[in-house]
Write a structure and sequence with these properties.
Blueprint: E1 3-14, E2 24-35, E3 39-43, H1 50-57, E4 65-70, E5 73-74, H2 80-83, E6 86-89, H3 101-112, H4 119-125, H5 141-153, E7 159-163, H6 171-186, E8 190-194, H7 198-204, E9 207-212, E10 215-220, H8 222-228, E11 234-238, E12 243-246, H9 253-261, E13 265-270, H10 275-283
Parallel strand pairs: 3-8, 3-9, 6-7, 7-8
Antiparallel strand pairs: 1-2, 1-4, 4-5, 9-10, 11-12, 11-13
Helix pairs in contact: 3-5
InterPro entries: AAA+_ATPase, ABC_transporter-like_ATP-bd, ABC_transporter-like_CS, ABC_transporter_ATP-binding, P-loop_NTPase
Protein name: ABC transporter ATP-binding protein
GO cellular component, one term: plasma membrane
Length: 287
């Protein structure tokens, strides 16, 4: 499968406030690739460099070293037409405060050169049809977030960068966003998403990369990461002997065999961590 974007050995540092101090290294030898049509989760503690990475990939910042490719060619050679193929939702996504939700979407449809005919359906999908005439300046955080997401998707982009897309949303709206992202992925859209919600990453993403202090410490499918950090324990709930703990290797095989032969097994559970536990193991930091 073709890579739609790649980063190879990318480094970036920022000048500190005081000129006599060394520059702060923000990203160090960052290397990964995102395949066309996949949902790629970019996870990390606050300040790890997630938003900075999106700004590099969208040319809001310039790298110090390394290579970045977008749509198969160096990002330095990206043309304006390439960015017409991209949608972006970030903490700086621009919605015009004195315009309504609907008028903002019509404005972005016009900029992107697409018909506004699909706006009513999008508003309905995000539960905003009754609020379509509400001015952005009077919207709640959740309403703003949903409107900004629709603005990012108004032109059916091939690649979308979503920075915390469900931040501030209630469970119903979050579920609808997840459903919309699944439909986009099924239609071939590539999704690059940052999130602090590990359950969201497991549900939405084909693969995840975990960033810690500017370096990628893991990159794989969520299930593969969980299996990599699985513990060598099995818990067996029995009919008459309570819960028995054993190991899931040759040493534990006789115990399991005896319980199965005796008809004692009610349930068997292996001890795999969830993605949040893997995250904590790799970073040593909470989200």
């Amino acid at each position: 499968m073709m890579n739609i974007l790649t980063m190879e050995g990318v480094c970036l540092s920022f000048a500190r406030k005081h000129r006599d101090e060394e520059r702060k290294q923000v990203l160090s030898n960052l290397t990964f690739a995102v395949r066309r049509g996949e949902a790629f989760g970019f996870l990390g503690p606050s300040g790890a460099g997630k938003t900075t990475t999106i700004k590099l990939l969208t040319r809001q910042l310039a790298k110090d070293a390394g290579r970045i490719q977008l749509f198969g060619r160096p990002i330095e050679n990206a043309a304006p037409a390439d960015y017409e193929r991209i949608g972006i939702l970030s903490d700086t996504s621009a919605l015009y405060e004195r315009m309504s939700i609907e008028d903002n979407l019509r404005f972005y449809a016009n900029i992107r050169g697409v018909s506004p005919s699909g706006i009513p359906r999008l508003l309905e999908r995000m539960g905003l049809e009754r609020d379509r005439k509400t001015l952005i300046k009077t919207c709640s955080k959740g309403m703003r977030q949903r409107a900004a997401l629709l603005a990012a998707l108004i032109h059916s982009p091939e690649l979308v960068f979503l920075d915390e897309p469900t931040s501030g949303l209630d469970p119903v709206a979050r579920t609808e966003v997840h459903r919309m992202l699944a439909e986009l992925r099924s239609a071939g859209t590539t999704i690059f998403i940052t999130t602090h919600d590990m359950a969201e990453a497991e549900e939405v993403c084909d693969r995840v990369g975990i960033l810690n202090e500017g370096s990628l410490v893991a990159c794989d499918e969520p299930d593969a990461l969980k299996l990599r950090f699985a513990r060598n324990r099995v818990s067996v709930r029995t009919r008459t002997r309570g819960t028995i703990e054993t190991t899931k290797d040759a040493a534990g095989a006789p115990v399991l065999a005896e319980l199965l032969e005796a008809g004692e097994c009610l349930s068997i559970h292996s001890d795999e961590p969830n993605l949040e536990e893997v995250f904590l193991e790799l970073t040593g930091r909470e989200l």
